[in-house]
């Protein structure tokens, strides 16, 4: 089984959503919600994934003077993005700071995994019409029959799909020469 994980970074209030996928069977195996980045990272380490795709930047501040190349390409393709902040101009939103912490923890706890950035909104447009992946809908129910934040869980599942595409070499990116890292999902 080739495990992949997708993560949606909601921040302190919404929490962090994760999807575990198996690229061999092409199925989403589980969806999880975590209140703390440390709990999420510990779970990721237990799964021993090959690739982790995070819906959030590796760094919340860039040196500037311009925006990231990947973000500019996404805007040119018709998507709205929350730009990574330029150091000294604006403080980053809290969720971006949490994303940085998640990247740091996962790269520390799972050094053998490749960690990539993903933009699920764009990936959904590009990948979902032709995907052969499956996700049992009962995963959205959770233990109580209803899960708050199911859109975030779906974004995590899409991120897992992108992680699998990266592993298989079938997924493209925006900002191949981006100063932080490319954003996958093309």
Task: Give a structural overview.
The chain is globular and about 45 Å long. The mean pLDDT is 89. It starts with a strand and ends with a strand. It has a single domain (3-184), classed as Nucleotidyltransferase, domain 5 (2-Layer Sandwich), CATH 3.30.420. Strand 2 and strand 3 (27-34) form a beta hairpin. Helix 1 packs parallel to helix 3 and helix 4 packs across helix 5 (150-168). It has 186 residues and is an alpha/beta fold. It is built from five helices and nine strands, in the order βββαββαβαβααββ. It has helices at residues 37-47, 69-76, 94-109, 120-127, 150-168, and strands at 3-11, 15-22, 27-34, 51-55, 61-62, 85-86, 114-118, 173-174, 183-184. The strands form two sheets. The protein has a seven-stranded mixed β-sheet.
What labels would you give this structure?
186 residues, Nucleotidyltransferase, domain 5, 9 strands, two-stranded parallel ribbon, single chain, alpha/beta
Tell me which CATH architecture applies here: 2-Layer Sandwich
Q: How large is the count of helical segments?
A: 5
Order of helices and strands: EEEHEEHEHEHHEE
Please tell me what the overall shape is.
globular
The CATH class label is Alpha Beta
Q: Proportion of β residues?
A: 15-25%
Here the CATH topology equals Nucleotidyltransferase, domain 5
Q: Widest sheet: strand order?
A: 3-2-1-4-7-9-8
Q: Helix/strand/pairing class, anyone? A: alpha/beta
């Amino acid at each position: 089984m080739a495990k992949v994980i997708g993560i949606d970074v909601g921040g302190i209030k919404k929490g962090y959503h994760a999807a575990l996928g198996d690229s061999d069977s092409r199925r989403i195996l589980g969806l999880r919600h975590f209140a703390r980045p440390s709990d999420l990272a510990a779970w990721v380490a237990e799964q021993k994934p090959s690739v982790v795709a995070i819906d959030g930047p590796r760094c919340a501040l860039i040196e500037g003077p311009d925006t990231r190349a990947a973000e500019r390409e996404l805007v040119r393709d018709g998507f709205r993005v929350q730009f990574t902040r330029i150091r000294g101009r604006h403080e980053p939103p809290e969720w971006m700071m949490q994303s940085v912490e998640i990247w740091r923890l996962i790269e520390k706890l799972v050094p053998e995994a490749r960690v990539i950035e993903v933009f699920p909104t764009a990936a959904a447009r590009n990948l979902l019409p032709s995907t052969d992946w499956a996700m049992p809908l009962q995963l959205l129910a959770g233990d109580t029959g209803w899960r708050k934040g199911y859109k975030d869980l779906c974004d995590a599942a899409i991120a897992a799909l992108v992680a699998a595409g990266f592993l298989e070499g079938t997924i493209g990116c925006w900002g191949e020469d981006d100063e932080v890292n490319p954003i996958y999902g093309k």
